[in-house]
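User: My collaborator sent over this chain with a note saying "see what the structure looks like." That's all I know about it. Can you take a look?
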Amino acid sequence: MLPTEVPQSHPGPSALLLLQLLLPPTSAFFPNIWSLLAAPGSITHQDLTEEAALNVTLQLFLEQPPSGRPPLRLEDFLGRTLLADDLFAAYFGPGSSRRFRAALGEVSRANAAQDFLPTSRNDPDLHFDAERLGQGRARLVGALRETVVAARALDHTLARQRLGAALHALQDFYSHSNWVELGEQQPHPHLLWPRQELQNLAQVADPTCSDCEELSCPRNWLGFTLLTSGYFGTHPPKPPGKCSHGGHFDRSSSQPPRGGNNKDSTSPGFSPHHMLHLQAAKLALLASIQAFGLLRSRLGDRDFSRLLDITPASSLSFVLDTTGSMGEEINAAKIQARHIVEQRRGSPMEPVHYVLVPFHDPGFGPVFTTSDPDSFWQQLNEIHALGGGDEPEMCLSALQLALLHTPPLSDIFVFTDASPKDAFLTNQVESLTQERRCRVTFLVTEDTSRVQGRARREILSPLRFEPYKAVALASGGEVIFTKDQHIRDVAAIVGESMAALVTLPLDPPVVVPGQPLVFSVDGLLQKITVRIHGDISSFWIKNPAGVSQGQEEGVGPLGHTRRFGQFWMVTMDDPPQTGTWEIQVTAEDTPGVRVQAQTSLDFLFHFGIPMEDGPHPGLYPLTQPVAGLQTQLLVEVTGLGSRANPGDPQPHFSHVILRGVPEGAELGQVPLEPVGPPERGLLAASLSPTLLSTPRPFSLELIGQDAAGRRLHRAAPQPSTVVPVLLELSGPSGFLAPGSKVPLSLRIASFSGPQDLDLRTFVNPSFSLTSNLSRAHLELNESAWGRLWLEVPDSAAPDSVVMVTVTAAGREANPVPPTHAFLRLLVSAPALQDQHTTPTGSSDPILTTATPAFSPFTLVTQGRAGAGLAAGSPWWGTVGGVLLLLGLASW
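Assistant: Without extra context I'll predict from the sequence alone. Here is the result:
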């Protein structure tokens, strides 16, 4: 029996009873999974965020049946852990959840970072501490409003950051206030609604706690009905008679009344009210689902899906040289874009985001972004090759602008026939590609051995294209040289690269004369393609059975070979034979070789620093590992397969291999340990300071076995880089207002020895930025702090993205590679006072609890978005039906 429609936010008594039955006996409000080392069995901010998002995604899938596939059935998800892989396999097909899981990871890490960033970790307004409940509610509502503004401006990275901050505060309310102690069984009815004052707040003269000298304080709460929260640390100071937050690191908890009231974890050493952790987690999860539902209602299903990347599709991002010699290249880009738009319109693989940046000399831009394919095609069709035929051009500036506006995990294609005039940006663009995790492919119609076809101001170096090669290497992309007559055929790789392909690791990674390239094929790979380009004399490909195929065009024993000038593409027949394959290439130069395939099995990864000496132990996220610093690598395997047969063995991954880039020398092997149940595919490895002692790029390879014991081998799509220093740049929690002057915080630390550094700043667009720190001398384990002031002009366009970059580079006597920190901000006009009020009526969901099919994982209600609300709706629209499928027992 399916439940009836749910108009709003308050599950009825049966829902709460079922929640009590389904949640584990120990449950968390620590930042992320690493926190569980300090408080095993707790439910973290990460858990709550991911579970809420999965519930709302399932509701969306149930309400909008997939095109060309059977509709999802609610009963298929009852009684088992809700997993992104299962949801996406049922709705889109296997192997399609990678982008969604990456987006959800962005939100979760932004949530956790609130406990670590210097601008947020000690602000009571952002954690509902120190009885600042009204101020906390205002900041929470503001963060949700900013999420909507950023999402509508198509800056989904910033939207996810603000969403993570909002969810952190929302979840903290139930752990840090006494809402649970007051016996409340539902989320607070006014917390998410603007212009609704919180009622019955404790005043400064109202005593709230009695003294408790034990770690566990179940009876320190004074019996009253006012809403309050605990004080943490020394700012603001705790008034007499007030509760502390409590725990090992709360200095206020040693002042009478001692003890505290937080419910962050299951550990009495951290949480004096640990016995109420389960109830607080339950309400925090319900409230998080409400928040996701509100955003869905305000944004609409299409934009909400883009916010969380609820799609298997990639984005389409072009950077186009528009000088007079580029007619063929521009036409090739138009043909490919038109083909992609027409072939994928209305399908799950239709691009969700389009970016176009033209460039020439001396100018570049403006950037054009849209989610409408027709608008993109119209804008692209208006670009023509016009004058300015001399070399070099402002290519890297245009690419930097594209990276600023392109979603993570995207491909960017650069069409040019000129070298870069702005080569000084090379290292910064390399770093930005890794921060954004975007792959850049350059399609260059310039013959590198000749200098004809363009006017030139000077004789150009034969190494002038090295910046493109450096950026391509750092991003996991390629530089493909071709000629005008072949560019249309070579440009076909644009569409093929958007098909969720993985790149197979080669051994060695580059061609060595007389030595074959070796790669492994497993049973989960299909549609393998081999691309070879350069000054090629000959090549052959050999399968594990010894069958080989050469460079001759046409159909051969292994597949179909196509040639366009010095560019070959070999499409292997399906199914490919499993085992070890070889490629032998003879060439005059160093040719490019890439092997790609489609597969359901891939992985995501990120780095973090264990934080064990603060109020919220957890893993502080890093974009790149830092030399000399103990670092955790977290791996998230995607596409582990359907749960239709839960008893089937899952693939097992044992370790990762780190290799130097570009030479491919093995730097080390690190064992992986599972985190949580195996079906989630979460693994962790500890990277020692010795392994990360030298600043350098490296690649990651994931090694394991399939269910039959056969080898599995996957490579990260792009290298990572060990940076010489830790560089943190943080800004305001809200958006930028035109005419304002905004302080930014900078921290730089060395963990690998003395450093003499120059600090440079850059703002895109060119706003005024001043800093009180231009140089730093650091000894081992020493930090320096700086302050920056960003001036936003009155003329700043609302909804425009601002990127602040700080670069720390070694001075002449200390030539260490530069380190970059990036901060994204959004200019937004001051929010208008909202005139809406909360809805005046609601009804409770009806739930069924009788069926024994419910395992300790599942609570379900079903509703329809927008049902049952009065006309006086909140500023973000009506609340969608609440769908709760709780898999918390699996955490």
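A starting point for your reply to your collaborator: The two ends are 28 Å apart (CA to CA).
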